[in-house]
Design goal:
13% strand, alpha+beta
Length: 139
């Protein structure tokens, strides 16, 4: 039931975002990435609210996953002017990186000097949440 409402919405945002990123649509790509990350992070609240008995497991999933922690930081960073409490990077953001020719990619710079492609981060988070939900018979 949860996946029908919130999970399907996340997938719709994922599809919209993929189109904006692939077309290198500038502001739309940034906006859609932040909206996608916010919807991914909100899955934590949807699952917790619908299955109170799994609250500790849900919190552990979102606490122990590096990908989901980074999405938390991105979401909170886009919501608040300053983030006092963060998991990975208090300055987490999305950047447009030139890769040659006429191509760019949208990345999340992470501590240590690496850049993680935004869509790969989102897809990884979606897969982790789906696996968790499958394991808990929530799909």
């Amino acid at each position: 039931m949860i996946w029908v409402f919130s999970g399907q919405r996340v997938l719709r945002w994922r599809d919209r975002t993929a189109v904006a990123v692939a077309s290198d649509s500038g502001s739309d790509a940034f906006d859609f990435l932040f909206a996608l990350f916010a919807n991914v992070f909100q899955m934590r609240d949807w699952i917790r609210a619908s299955r109170r008995d799994l609250e500790n497991d849900v919190m552990a999933l979102f606490r122990d996953s590096a990908n989901l922690c980074l999405v938390r930081d991105l979401t909170n960073g886009s919501k608040y002017m300053e983030v006092a409490s963060y998991s990975i990077d208090g300055a987490a953001t999305v950047a447009r990186e030139y890769v040659g020719g006429d191509e760019n990619r949208y990345v999340v710079p992470i501590p240590g000097g690496r850049n993680l492609e935004g869509m790969l981060l989102a897809d990884g988070c979606i897969a982790e949440i789906r696996s968790f939900m499958e394991a808990k018979s929530l799909l």
